[in-house]
Amino acid sequence: MPARHWLWLVPVGLFGAAGIWALRTFDPNVAGNPFLPCVFHSLTGLYCPGCGATRALHALVHFDLLRALSMNALLIVGAPIGGLLALRALHKLPAWTDAWLRPIANPWLWAGLVTLFGVLRNLPWLPFSWLAPG
């Protein structure tokens, strides 16, 4: 494969490295951090499906998986699956993986999961309150 087909990895790698550096350097749990707050939560007081994602990634780059899961379980569980689906879309996975990835590649499934996660994490009862960040 010619080198130019891999050029897109340079900005992606730089962007990822910058993100990891920012998450290792700044704590989103401390006031005055450079990360933007969730606009949806600021306006409504409700948690969107992405609330806690920055804090989850911060915990993840500090190797605290349980804290990351407590901040945004959907992101922590869904990101590796999303990575596999991206590799599948780019035809970079063996053919035998298609049989078990095809059912979870449905965008309607993910739209439903994200919506359901957003609703359930705002319910005040156990076990749903465990889905709220923190």
From TrEMBL:
<keyword id="KW-1133">Transmembrane helix</keyword>
<protein>
    <recommendedName>
        <fullName>DUF2752 domain-containing protein</fullName>
    </recommendedName>
</protein>
<feature type="transmembrane region" description="Helical">
    <location>
        <begin position="108"/>
        <end position="128"/>
    </location>
</feature>
<keyword id="KW-0472">Membrane</keyword>
<feature type="transmembrane region" description="Helical">
    <location>
        <begin position="65"/>
        <end position="87"/>
    </location>
</feature>
<keyword id="KW-0812">Transmembrane</keyword>
<dbReference type="InterPro" id="IPR021215">
    <property type="entry name" value="DUF2752"/>
</dbReference>
<dbReference type="Pfam" id="PF10825">
    <property type="entry name" value="DUF2752"/>
</dbReference>
